[in-house]
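Hi R.,

Here's the chain you asked about this morning:
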Amino acid sequence: MFVSEDLQVNAQGHLTIGGQDTVELAKQYGTPLYVMDEDLIRKHCRSFKQSMDKFYQGKGLVCYASKAFSCKAIYRVMQEEGLGVDVVSGGELYTAMQTGFDSSKICFHGNFLNIHICILQQSLYFEYDVFYNPVFGRFAAHFLDQHL
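And here is the predicted structure, written out as tokens:
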């Protein structure tokens, strides 16, 4: 009936997420409230990683799309599960780095319109080891050489 295995209806007729009664959560924390099942998130991370390892002999990096939900807790989960993260803004990059995320597993992607020079400067200033779009990267390297 539900779109996810972690959604149920308990004996009181309340929606549960990961076994947690959403009515009780709303009483405790107020609304609106974002509720995620960390166990299910981790299960899906492991499934993606196992597929990459099996079908590509571990020669790939599964990346979480930070645009979907960027917060320190999700970055910690991704790092613990061995995934990389795909970031498209300075805020996402900053948040990931604040958690101690392995910068070699951060993929900075986008185009000139959404990768501003200040974001690249931030990467250089903090000495991030960040992958980004190679076509734009050649332009950016030349631009930064001329303007820093």
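One quick note: The first helix runs from residue 22 to 29.

Cheers,
M.
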